[in-house]
Amino acid sequence: GDSVTQMEGPVTLSEEAFLTINCTYTATGYPSLFWYVQYPGEGLQLLLKATKADDKGSNKGFEATYRKETTSFHLEKGSVQVSDSAVYFCALRPSGYSTLTFGKGTMLLVSP
Amino acid sequence: DTEVTQTPKHLVMGMTNKKSLKCEQHMGHRAMYWYKQKAKKPPELMFVYSYEKLSINESVPSRFSPECPNSSLLNLHLHALQPEDSALYLCASSQDLGGGETQYFGPGTRLLVL
Questions:
Q1: Would you say A77 and A19 are in contact if contact means Cβ atoms under 8 Å apart?
Q2: Could you tell me which residues are beta bridge partners of residue B48?
Q3: At B84, phi and psi to the nearest 5?
Q4: How far, in Å, CA of A35 to CA of B85, rounded?
Q5: Which residues of chain B are within 8 Å of residue A32 when distances are taken between CB atoms?
Q6: Does the distance separating the beta carbons of A99 and B100 come in below 8 Å?
Q7: pLDDT per position as a tens digit, A27-59
Q8: Whole-number pLDDT of residue A98
């Protein structure tokens, strides 16, 4: 079945450091890919998405590129802030299906 | 506007109580979802409604009873819950059930069952 694998956390960075959170997936066909962020005590917010190969999603300085050849959708940000501290979930939605498959989530902790 | 609202924000209930969670969206979305999220875990799908009809029930115990009175509103009725049901309950909506549609989540209701 479909699955999403994210790097284990927590990821601990200093402010202004470069961020990469790895995400790889297993799915048939052409799924859509998403990154959601969950701040402490809150629900999930859509961060960015990509619906086809080579698409780049971007928002708030974060970006991720849909790489079908490596089945990856890694999240990157050039300079993190303390306010980026949160849990990040990579997810896929199979083509023609309604359900999301989530990765286990990666906690990001940014210190001043 | 991509807002999904949920009430209440917090809920404490005993195992014999009956309570309801409410979710609302005004984006014209025709698919709505209930998820359960335990601490440090990803959300787990419970129910999916499409055009006000139950489309998916992920083998959820009958003590959870969903209801979709209209296209903007989704309820989750709770009865005789167990302490292990304590969790964050998230509602989401999307334009429809087609592949690629983005799900937008509400802030959740944090439920504690005593």
A1: yes
A2: B33, B56
A3: -70, -5
A4: 27
A5: 99-100
A6: no
A7: 988 899 999 999 998 999 999 999 999 999 999
A8: 72
